[in-house]
Design a protein that fits this description.
alpha+beta; four-stranded antiparallel beta sheet; binds adenosine-3',5'-cyclic-monophosphate
Length: 143
């Protein structure tokens, strides 16, 4: 079954949006298979956001993502990567539709509440960066 990495960023944690975000994915029908509240180190931030290393906002991005705890999660389900992106909304909240997480709760691109893997390769890479295999569970649900 497909898995994706989702992370409530420091602004989402500060604004008490963990429950709201977890609730949306639960109600959609996806399954939480791993989660933790954690502080990202500058090293992990640089690795996670490695593809943005040359961007002018890289320093700001690392500073922000390490500014307070994040809530890291692994979700499982059919097409969870692409559907998770739809539920998250466009990166820039100026363009994210109402009904999406960023569309409903964010106004700036830097503080945009949530991160989600953008492809199958990113999902594998990001899950591996944040979780050990034994921190993830596999279980069947009836409903
Ligand atoms: P995310 O999905 O976590 O992946 C990369 C992040 O870079 C993105 O969300 C934004 O929060 C951030 N980002 C993109 N563009 C900018 C920008 N112009 N200024 C600050 N942060 C940005």
């Amino acid at each position: 079954m497909e898995r994706t990495f989702l992370m409530v960023k420091p602004d989402g944690v500060q604004r008490n949006l963990i429950g709201e975000i977890v609730g949306r994915f639960e109600k959609k029908g996806f399954q939480l298979v791993g989660s933790k509240l954690m502080q990202i180190t500058p090293e992990l931030a640089a690795e996670h956001y490695g593809e943005h290393k040359e961007r002018p906002f890289f320093g700001e991005l690392v500073e922000f993502i390490t500014s307070g705890p994040v809530f890291a999660m692994v979700w499982e389900g059919e097409n969870v990567i692409s559907v998770g992106r739809l539920m998250t909304g466009a990166t820039n909240p100026k363009e994210s539709a109402p009904g999406t997480i960023r569309g409903d709760f964010a106004v700036t691109v830097g503080k945009n509440i949530i991160h989600g893997s953008d492809s199958a390769d990113s999902a594998v890479r990001e899950i591996g960066l944040f979780f050990k295999e034994e921190e993830l569970v596999s279980y069947t649900k009836d409903a």
